[in-house]
Amino acid sequence: MLSEYYQRPDATAKVFHNGWYLTGDLGYMAKGEVYVTGRKKDLIIVGGKNIYPQDLESLAGEWRAFTPAGWRHLEYSTKIPD
Prior knowledge:
Elements: H1 9-15, E1 16-17, E2 20-21, E3 25-30, E4 33-39, E5 44-46, E6 49-51, H2 53-61, E7 66-67, E8 70-71
Antiparallel strand pairs: 1-2, 3-4, 5-6, 7-8
């Protein structure tokens, strides 16, 4: 997880609250389960490029590792699953 934005104390101060990183995800907990219902902002900016979360979700949905029955364990790797 990140500890700060590089050379951006102003941006860092906006996303941390009492030591917690505020992701912008919206959701709720019920009976010990976490449900994500949306996002405050539907845009991720990485290296000056706009990335839309729904595009990442669509790509993730194409992997066999992500199934309606649950998520299999994925190891961090430079290889993409078949």
